[in-house]
């Protein structure tokens, strides 16, 4: 059996010091491009893989990044993981996921214990957990590096990546009005979430500016689940007259609206236009396909990963100038010009 190549082998063949090889492996910037390329070529030819445990001990780091979430949308979690891993794997970090119960009394201590128990270098926190300022304060008090993905600017720019949901829903309002719609109903998310407030105010404020009021009976609160979308759609579609449009806080609930409309024999989009938010895989596969708002989740997660690595290594974040990203409207088959 062949002997496993060592860092000494790489240094010897490349004709450089072991320290220089270490710098290249650890992504340090103080190595010339030609030297870096030569060392990387030797690393690739030998199939050298640094011992992460030894590397972590030498740097007083574990090279582990945690992902904390309480989100039932598996597609969203998958997109986040792909975005984070695309950055972290190149930096030599591994990802450890930790689901939690955001509304439980012990969730803050649970999250802190996870970081301590797993010897995590830093964490990326997803919504709705990321909306907890109490958790952010606890992480900071314990000296734990963190970055939050949220829909509102609630932290220092190095600790946050913001999705401008308010602006995106403002665009949705203008689009629906451009189709001639005046009677618009809304299925909001849970009212205690920042994202719900941002999206609801984004669409209702713009509609008011355009001279369209949304009566209170046309706004119902869902739970961001398919089942709650069904329940809320039934409550709206039995009203007289029926709304021309239903905008749901996410695609899961919008899919519930499509189901109820089908059961009641209501043609979408002929008699009812439907729109959602997220643009997950479901949105393009349901019939009719959903008009929705697409968040660049993979890109946002990549920015969060660059930020957390920068905090861990006490360096400026690479290629990160902005921390606010605006989602954009995706127009599909579920919306069309008003028929009345």
3D structure, described in words:
- The protein folds into three domains: 44 residues, Orthogonal Bundle (434 Repressor (Amino-terminal Domain)), CATH 1.10.260; 134 residues, Response regulator (Rossmann fold, 3-Layer(aba) Sandwich); 131 residues, 3-Layer(aba) Sandwich (Rossmann fold).
- Strands 2-1-3-4-5-11 form a six-stranded parallel β-sheet, with helices on both faces. A four-stranded parallel β-sheet has the order 7-6-8-9, sandwiched between helices.
- Helices cover 45% and strands 14% of the residues.
- The termini are far apart.
- It is elongated.
- α5 links the parallel β1 and β2.
- The protein contains 13 helices and twelve strands.
- α6 packs parallel to α7.
- The model has no long low-confidence stretch (mean pLDDT 90).
- With 340 residues, it is α/β, with parallel strands linked by helices.
How does the SSE layout of this entry go?
Blueprint: H1 7-14, H2 18-25, H3 33-46, H4 52-59, E1 64-69, H5 74-91, E2 94-99, H6 107-118, E3 122-125, H7 133-141, E4 145-150, E5 160-163, H8 165-178, E6 184-188, H9 194-209, E7 219-221, H10 226-237, E8 245-248, H11 251-263, E9 273-275, H12 281-285, E10 292-294, H13 297-313, E11 324-325, E12 328-330
Parallel strand pairs: 1-2, 1-3, 3-4, 4-5, 5-11, 6-7, 6-8, 8-9
Antiparallel strand pairs: 10-12
Pfam families: LacI (PF00356), Peripla_BP_3 (PF13377)
Domain Rhodanese: 134-198
InterPro entries: HTH_LacI, LacI/GalR-like_sensor, Lambda_DNA-bd_dom_sf, Peripla_BP_I, Rhodanese-like_dom
């Amino acid at each position: 059996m062949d002997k496993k190549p060592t860092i000494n082998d790489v240094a010897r063949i490349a004709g450089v010091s072991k320290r220089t090889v270490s710098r290249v492996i650890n992504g340090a910037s103080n190595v010339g491009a030609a030297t870096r390329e030569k060392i990387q070529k030797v690393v690739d030819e030998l199939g050298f893989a640094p011992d992460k445990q030894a590397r972590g001990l030498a740097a007083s780091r574990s090279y582990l990044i945690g992902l904390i979430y309480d989100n039932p949308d598996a597609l969203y979690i998958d997109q986040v993981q792909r975005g984070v891993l695309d950055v972290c794997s190149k930096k030599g970090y591994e990802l450890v996921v930790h689901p939690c119960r955001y509304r439980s009394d012990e969730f803050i201590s649970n999250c802190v214990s996870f970081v301590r128990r797993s010897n995590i270098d830093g964490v990326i926190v997803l919504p709705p957990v990321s909306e907890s300022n109490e958790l952010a304060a606890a992480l900071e008090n314990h000296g734990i590096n963190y970055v939050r993905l949220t829909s509102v600017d609630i932290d220092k720019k190095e600790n946050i990546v913001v999705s401008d949901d308010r602006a995106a829903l403002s665009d949705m309002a203008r689009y629906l009005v451009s189709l001639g719609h005046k009677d618009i109903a809304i299925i909001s998310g849970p009212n205690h979430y920042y994202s719900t407030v941002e999206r609801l105010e984004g669409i209702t404020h713009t509609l008011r500016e355009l001279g369209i009021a949304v009566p209170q009976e046309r706004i119902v609160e869902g739970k961001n689940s398919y089942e709650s979308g069904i329940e809320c759609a039934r409550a709206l579609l039995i009203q007289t007259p029926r709304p021309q449009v239903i905008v749901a806080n996410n695609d899961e609930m919008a899919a519930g609206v499509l189901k109820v409309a089908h059961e009641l024999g209501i043609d979408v989009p002929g008699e009812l236009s439907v729109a959602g938010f997220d643009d997950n895989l479901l949105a393009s596969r349901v019939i009719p396909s959903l008009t929705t708002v697409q968040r660049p989740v993979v890109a946002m997660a990549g920015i969060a990963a660059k930020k957390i690595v920068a905090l861990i290594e006490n360096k400026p974040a690479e290629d990160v100038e902005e921390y606010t990203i605006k989602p954009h409207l995706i127009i599909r088959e579920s919306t069309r010009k008003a028929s009345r």
